[in-house]
Structures are given as C-alpha cells and as structure tokens.
Write a structure and sequence with these properties.
Chain A: Keywords: ATP-binding, Nucleotide-binding, Repeat, Sugar transport, Transport. Chain A: InterPro entries: AAA+_ATPase, ABC_carbohydrate_import_ATPase, ABC_transporter-like_ATP-bd, P-loop_NTPase. Chain A: This is ATP-binding cassette domain-containing protein. Chain A: GO terms for molecular function: ATP binding. The complex is a heterodimer of chains A (about 260) and B (about 425). Chain A is about 30% helix and about 25% strand. Chain A is α/β, with parallel strands linked by helices. In chain A, the strands form 2 sheets. Chain A has a 7-stranded mixed sheet with strand order 6-7-8-3-9-10-11, with helices on both faces. In chain A, helix 4 packs across helix 5. The radius of gyration of chain A is 19 Å and the shape is globular. With about 425 residues, chain B is mainly α. Chain B contains 18 helices and no strands. The two termini of chain B are about 30 Å apart. The chains are: A alpha/beta (about 260), B mainly alpha (about 425). The interface between A and B is medium-sized, with 33 and 32 residues. The complex binds adenosine-5'-diphosphate and magnesium ion. Adenosine-5'-diphosphate binds next to strand 2 and helix 1 of chain A.
C-alpha cells in the first residue's frame, strides 16, 4: 500500500439545511496514525462535517474515499463497516438502559440460541471500562443515573471497543474534569500509536497543539486553512478562528479571508 | 476479582445502616414498583371482598375475572412496546372489532359453504385469516407512522374510525353467529378450560421452569464472577413463586362445573349421574393463551435484539439511529405485532360471546392504554414492563367486576375507573421522582 494514500479523504463536501450552508466545499484528509484537529467557533460546521463521515447526515455534494477507494456511506451502519467509529458531542446514549446495552447497541453479543447474551456483554463492558475508568462500578444502572464523566467514558468505550480504524471524537472532554481530560489525552496518544487515524474536535487550543499533527480551522462552514502546530503559533490559529486570516505557515482553504492587496 | 470484593465490601458497609425491608429488597432484587402494584391489587381484592360480604374472593369470581381480563391483557403487552417507543395506538378496539367480524364471517358463512359445516379445520383457517388481516392492518398503520412520518396519534385515530366502519361494512352491521365449536374453546366456559389434571401439570411445569431459571441465572453470575443473591433469597423467591403458581391452580381447580352441565356430561356418555359429582374447570383456555402471550412477549422484550432496540429507541431515538439501528423498521414491526395481538384478543372475545358483533371491542383501546400505563409504562417513552401491563389489566378488570358485584351503576363505574387511572399515574410520577433522588 502506498505510504501516502490517506485513510480517509473527504472531497468538496457540501450540505445545507434550509437556506443555511452548514458545510460548504470542504476537503480534508486523514492518515493512519495521525491526529487531525478540527477547530472553529460554535456553528462553524465541525459537527455537521463529521456527521457526514459517520453516516448521520447525507451530504448534498462531494465524495468520500476510504483507503483511496470511493466509499458509499449513507447511514451509520455503512460508516461502521468501514471502521469509522464516532463519539458524538451529544454522546448519543440511550439513557434508559445500562452501560453494557449502550456499548453493544446495534452490535449485541448473542448466545448460541439467538438471544441476547447480557452476561457476556456485561463482562466485556467491565473489561473495557476497567481500562478507561477503573473505579466505575454502576453496571446495572441506566446511564441516566451516571455522572457526566461516567457517561463520557461509556461513549468512548463504545467507540474504541470495536477496533476502529478511524475514530471521530467530537469534543470528547467537554464534560470532564482536568484529571479525566488528561486520561483522554493519554488514550488519544495510545490509539495513535496503534495506527488509528483520529479526527479530534476540541475548543482547547493547548490540547490541540499538544496532540494534533495537523489543525484544520473552519469558519462559517468553510475551511480557513490547515496548519501544523510546529509551523504556526497558537495566536496564529486563534487569528484563523476569529478573523479567518490565514498566516504564512498555513495552507489556505476556500474560506480564507481574501486580502485586498 | 477485585471488583467483586470491593462491591461486596461496600454492600457489607451499607447493610449495617439499612433497615430490614431495604436489605430484604436488595437481596431478593425484587422490583419495588411491581410489589406496590401487587399490593394495590391485594387491597382492591380484599376491599371488594369485605364490601360484598364475601363474594369477591371466591373461585367462581376469580375464575371469571381471569377470563374477562384475558383480552385486554393480551393487547396491553403490545401496547407497552408501542408506548415505550413514544407512540400510541388508538385503533386496537376497532381493529379487534373488524378482525373479529372477518373471522366470524369466515367461520360462520364463508367456510361452511366451501368446506361444509363443522369442518375440523374451520377454526384454524379463520384464525389464520384473522392473523393475516391483523398483521396487514398493523403493517399499513406502522408504515404510515414510521416511513411516511405521520404521528401515531393521528394515524391510529383515523384507524379507530376506519376499522370500526370497516367492521360494519362486512355485514352491514348484522351480528354473525354462532361460532365454530372448536373456535369457541378460546372463549373459556366449562368446555374452554383444561380441567384439574392438566391444570396441575401446567402448574408443576411452571414451578420447575421457575426453579430452573433461578438456578441458571445463578450459574451465569458465578461464571462471570458477578455478585450473587444470598442463598436464602433465592430460596425465598422459589418458594413464594411456586406457592403463588400452585395457589392460583388450586383456585381454578376448586371452581366446579354447574350441575346441569355435569348431568349432561354423564348422560352423553351413557353413565349414571353420581350424587356429589365435582368436575373442576381448571385454567381457562383464554387465560392460558394470555399467559403464553405474556411469556413470549416478555422474552421478546428482554432477551431479543428487537426488544433491546424497542427500549433504546424509546430512551433516545437519535442515539438508536446513530448506533445503526433501523429504527423505522423496528417501529413498523411493533405495529404488526400489535395487529396480531389484537387478532388473538378478537378471537377470544368473539369466542366468548359466541358471536361477532359490530360493537365488539368498543372503547377497548382506552382500557388497553390504561392497563399499560397503570402497569408502569411511561408515556414519555423508554420505560415499561409486560408483566406490569398485564397486572394493570387485571387491576382494571377487578375494579369493573367488583363494582358490578356491588351493584354500582354504570356511570359511577366509569367515574371511578377514570379517577383511578389519573390517581395511579400521579402516584407513579411521585414514585419515580423519589427514586431518581
Ligand atoms: N439538523 C440540523 N438542522 C438544521 N440546521 C443544522 C442542523 N445541524 C446543524 N445545523 C446548523 O449548521 C451549522 C453548523 O453547526 P455545527 O456543525 O453543529 O457546528 P459546530 O459543531 O462547529 O459548532 C449551524 O448553523 C447549525 O445551526
Ligand atoms: Mg459541534
């Protein structure tokens, strides 16, 4: 396999809701073992863009390539077949059932009789949760009773359990304290080591500079530019987010402020 | 290993502070809500028994109560799934009427012309035709709700009118009777009950199944090192469960056939009629059907993917969709299932009446919804149990029967049932708020 074939390539993606162009002509790519951060103001279109990749939304235009081949993604099941797993900003948990039922939702373990194997699912859940959140004990309770951090770890467990090759994390640390946030950072590094490609959406520029290989800045549904943390400063990236101004070290996108010069 | 230890330790620490009833509930893992309902049922039963001067808790009344509850109980199991997914079905009563009418015409007019009167396959053909029709109507309503996006309330409100009208259309409002002799067994009565011997067999099989389930559950937990129930709690559950099952059988078996039927029974065999002949009814066939439906529906809800998806959709439809569940198809399947259950209820109702009438099942949708809601199904979605709804159906029927026994006028009966429904849901709301804290 060619070293430079990206794991995922999204080309010229557009989607509009009513009259709002939530995502407009966006192209991004991601390589194996790479962390690409998506940053931008609220409403910039980050969640919408990754929801197209995860199959939650159907794009109006554009193509998605996985390993260089065009991928047919029209619902979440399709995306999972390509090894794309997602931690949604809203977590997307069924509040009324327990952690194990959520972790295996849509991919339940079954007994030889064709019935749900709840005991096996709980046992597996205990193993993954033991890795992510060793003090977690509330396996029998509906997830609505769990704390924000515990719910977050259930959502993360669900994404990493099924051997994802492409992981999408939409603000995975929003509900977490500093210690748990550091844990997630460690997890991101570890998954990167394992060769998984990660799209990371975050508001924390420090974290982004710490973890990402590339940073893609979005504004008003468009890409302002792409930069490597070593080649630009945090202030440069803030300038991109706020003003849409692309600094010299970054590759400008269609959304970059056109300098009248 | 450490998991189990720490959990056991925390349990041990907590136990000292807990009261005896709390400890008991924790050890047996019984659902307090369900216990509350059984308690309410007991209060109602004992209350009516005292008020009626000892007429309520008799084998005869309890046996009739069980038969009268069967049809609503069967439909309430499907209504649980409908409501759990944040839908509603207002059409079940009319659906029952229409399917019942079609089954009636099939067996009383259509098949006799085709196969000859009293053909042994009549009942099963009529039932199969009804089930097919029920499933098709359910599929149609489910399709409009799930795929065309029309709210269930509107679709089934339309269905309430459409199917009642359709029932009238089949015979221009004429009542169809009598039903096929075998078909009639589904309605209960002295013939439509399985007798003392088979009732004991059913009871013993049920007890054995209960014990095996407890043993299997314990084995599974041990295999995966999960915390176990204390042995005394397991023993308690087995003993009380079996006692309740066998007690119910004993009641069904102490309700005798009326003396006229006993006399005819012996005369038909050319035997002399014994002086003190006692032939017990045993469990009524409609009750057996209802129990069978309850077991299958509980299995569907708790042990299959379908059931898991039903609850997940109810908890968070968006999350279910994002998890890759084909939520529309699941919703459509629920309405198909509801159609089939309405057919079974229709068979029982027509068989019991020995006729198909245009008014059959009128207002049943409200009883069915009330049974599900009293039984703990939350209209907000995501919460409900099959067993709860069935107990809810028995509770509603107990109120109705008890008031008839006391000679309460029909309008007052409606007022009481309506008030009880509202109070029950209010109590449930209060209970849930307290549990959350
Ligand atoms: N399902 C939807 N229907 C209508 N508008 C939407 C929908 N999802 C997102 N949008 C709009 O698209 C824009 C981008 O939102 P989003 O992708 O959530 O931004 P971000 O994740 O970057 O904060 C916003 O203007 C939002 O209101
Ligand atoms: Mg977002």
């Amino acid at each position: 396999m060619a070293e430079n074939t990206p794991l995922v390539e999204m080309k010229n993606i557009s989607i509009a809701f009513g009259g709002i162009h939530a995502v407009e002509d966006v192209s991004i790519d991601l390589h194996a073992g790479e962390v690409v951060a998506l940053v931008g103001h609220n409403g910039a279109g980050k969640s919408t863009l990754i929801k197209i990749l995860s199959g939650a939304y159907t794009r109006d235009a554009g193509t998605i390539l996985v390993n260089g081949k065009e991928a047919q993604i029209s619902n979440p099941r399709d995306a999972k077949k390509y090894g794309i797993e997602t931690i949604y900003q809203t977590l997307a948990l069924a509040d009324n059932v327990d952690a194990a039922a959520n972790l295996f939702l849509g991919r339940e373990l079954m007994t030889t009789w064709g019935t749900l194997d709840d005991v096996a699912m709980e046992s597996e859940t205990r193993k993954v949760m033991g890795r992510l959140n060793p003090r977690f004990q509330r396996f029998k309770e509906p997830v609505s009773r769990l704390s924000g951090g515990q719910r977050q770890s259930v959502a993360i467990a669900r994404a990493i359990y099924f051997d994802a090759r492409i992981l999408i994390m939409d603000e995975p640390t929003a509900a977490l304290g500093p210690q748990e946030t550091a844990q997630v950072s460690d997890l991101v590094r570890q998954l990167k080591q394992e060769g998984i490609g990660i799209f990371l959406i975050s508001h924390d520029i420090h974290d982004v500079f710490d973890l990402a290989d590339r940073v893609v800045v979005m504004k008003n549904g468009q890409v302002v530019g792409t930069a490597r943390p070593g080649e630009v400063t945090e202030d440069d990236v803030l300038g991109m987010i706020i003003l849409g101004k692309c600094p010299p070290g970054a590759v400008p996108g269609p959304g970059a402020l056109q300098m009248a010069a | 290993m450490t998991d189990v230890k720490s959990e056991a330790a925390s349990q041990g620490a907590g136990a000292a502070a807990e009261s005896a009833p709390a400890r008991f509930l924790k050890a047996t893992e019984l659902d307090t809500r369900m216990l509350g309902m059984l308690g309410a049922l007991a209060v109602i039963w004992i209350g009516f028994h005292l008020l009626s001067g000892g007429l309520f808790l008799t084998p005869r009344n309890l046996w009739n109560l069980s038969v009268q509850s069967a049809s609503v109980a069967i439909m309430s199991t499907g209504m649980v799934l409908v409501i759990v997914t944040r839908n509603i079905d207002l059409s079940v009563g009319s659906l029952l009427g229409f399917v019942g009418m079609v089954m009636g015409v099939t067996q009383a007019e259509f098949l006799p012309d085709l196969l000859g009167f009293g053909h042994p396959a009549t009942w099963i053909i009529a039932l199969a035709a009804g089930a097919l029709l029920g499933a098709l109507i359910g599929a149609l309503q489910g399709f409009i709700i799930a795929y065309m996006g029309v709210p269930a309330f509107i679709v089934t409100l339309g269905g309430l009118l459409v199917w009642r009208g359709a029932a009238w259309w089949v015979t221009s409002g004429r009542t169809v009777a009598p039903m096929d002799a075998t078909f009639r067994l589904m309605g209960g009565g002295p013939d439509g009950a399985i007798g003392a011997f088979w009732s004991w067999v059913v009871g013993i099989v049920a007890c054995v199944a209960l014990v095996l389930m407890l043993v299997h559950g314990r084995r599974q937990r041990r295999k995966f090192n999960f915390p176990l129930r204390p042995l005394w709690a397991e023993g308690f559950l087995a003993t009380v469960g079996c006692a309740l099952i066998l007690g119910a059988i004993a009641v069904a078996n102490s309700y005798p056939w009326p003396s006229g039927i006993v006399r005819r029974y012996f005369q038909a065999q050319g035997l002399p009629v014994p002086e003190d002949a006692f032939i017990a009814h045993g469990i009524a066939i409609p009750v057996l059907i209802a129990i069978g439906v309850g077991v299958i529906m509980t299995f569907l809800a708790n042990r299959t993917r379908f059931g898991r998806y039903v609850f997940a959709i109810g908890g968070n439809p968006e999350a279910a969709e994002l998890a890759g569940i084909n939520t529309r198809w699941v919703v459509m399947k629920i309405f198909i299932l509801m159609g089939v259950l309405a057919t079974i209820a229709a068979a029982i109702s027509t068989a019991r009446l020995n006729a198909a009438t245009n008014a059959l099942g009128t207002l049943d949708e409200l009883l069915v919804i009330a049974a599900a809601v009293i039984g703990g199904t939350s209209l907000g979605g995501g919460v409900g149990t099959i067993a709860g709804a069935m107990i809810g159906a028995v509770l509603m029927q107990s109120l109705a029967s008890g008031m008839i026994l006391l000679g309460v006028d029909t309008p007052l009966q409606n007022i009481v049932v309506g008030a009880v429904l509202v109070i029950a849901v209010w109590l449930d709301t209060v209970y849930r708020k307290r549990v959350k804290k």
